[in-house]
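Tutorial handout. Part one gives the primary structure; part two gives the three-dimensional structure as tokens.
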Amino acid sequence: MKVILMRDVIHAGRRGDIIDVKPGHARNFLLPQGMALEATPANLRVFEQQRSKIEERHFELVEQAREVAAGLNGLLIEIKKRVGETETLYGSVTATEISDQLEAKGIELDKRRIDLEGGIKTVGDHEVRIDLHQEVVATITVRVVAEE
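Part two.
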């Protein structure tokens, strides 16, 4: 089934691409999520007419993400956790904990944007990547300290 991507989809293509996908993937995921339109002649005409509006909205989202990234880059967050004798944590630091600490500093961020790359399970400073937009990534430092 041929579809027009309405936004960038990881491992599929960029906004505006016409791609061929399995019908089930289109029906059950891409179309209901608003990520794609069926590539009919009418939808192709509509998409071409709206392309400039879509590009403008995309540019605004990227600029907003860059502004947020400027405030996040280099930010230090401290999280206290229970620690064992070998300096390893009981459990691990979660994206929710990082999101809560950011919220306490006045930065609201969806926890799903925080990429922990396997988790934080030791005491010390850890670089954490935050995907604000597909084109904008911020990096913060999470310092894990032993709870007294």
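Part three, for discussion. The beta strands are 2-5, 18-20, 36-38, 76-81, 88-93, 114-115, 120-122, 124-133, 136-146. The chain has a mean pLDDT of 89.
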